[in-house]
Amino acid sequence: MGARVIQLAEFKALRDAAEPRLATLDTTAERDERFHFWSGASGRRYVHTVYDLVDCPEIPAANFLLVHRDATGRRTVLALGHLKHNAASLNLAEIRHRGARLGANEVHIHLLGANAHDRRTIELDLRARIDDCTDERITATRH
Questions:
Q1: Whether 71 contacts 29, CB under 8 Å
Q2: What domain count does the chain have?
Q3: Order of strands, edge to edge, in the sheet holding 75-82?
Q4: Range of the domain at 58
Q5: Closest CA to 107 of 55, 42, 30
Q6: Longest Cα pair distance anywhere in the chain, in angstroms?
Q7: Residue 140: inside a domain
Q8: With a threshold of 0.90, does the pTM exceed it?
Q9: Over its length of 143 residues, how does the chain's per-residue pLDDT go in tens digits?
Q10: Do 26 and 69 touch, CB atoms closer than 8 A?
């Protein structure tokens, strides 16, 4: 599996220039659907790489959201947390197991937490914001 380096400024410019549209699971705009920004209660925005639950690669220690995305493109957060195993394969196994149990079809991964403290802070910031949203369901996934 190959990796691709993206420039967030270029991605933001492309996203801002695009016309508003309703996202669907079978969209042809795959490039725009590979990243999603989630905002925390602090107002900070966190870029997440979006993977299908089945196609998710092995993941190093990172933040995650398990999401159910319906046919209209609406995303519902089912769980969030941070991964802490040193073995990326154990993190992937944990994500797939939890996702399958909860009915998730997407995994959103934030890789920019520099250390365990940063990842925990990001998790709490996102959790506080999502807990305030009454139309989204979330389960506790404490580590």
A1: no
A2: 1
A3: 35-39, 45-52, 106-110, 63-69, 75-82
A4: 33-132
A5: 55
A6: 41
A7: no
A8: no
A9: 555 666 666 666 665 654 444 333 344 444 457 999 999 999 999 999 999 999 999 999 999 999 999 999 899 999 999 988 889 999 999 999 999 999 999 999 999 998 999 999 999 999 998 876 544 444 434 33
A10: no
Count of residues in the chain:
143
Is residue 46 within 8 Å of residue 110, measured between CB atoms? yes
Residue 67, CA atoms < 13 Å, CB-side half-sphere:
22
> Is 17 a domain residue?
no
Confirm if 82 and 63 have CB atoms less than 8 A apart: yes
Give the residue among 63, 91, 92 at the shortest CA–CA distance from 79. 63
Query: Distance between CA atoms of 57 and 108, rounded to whole angstroms?
Result: 12
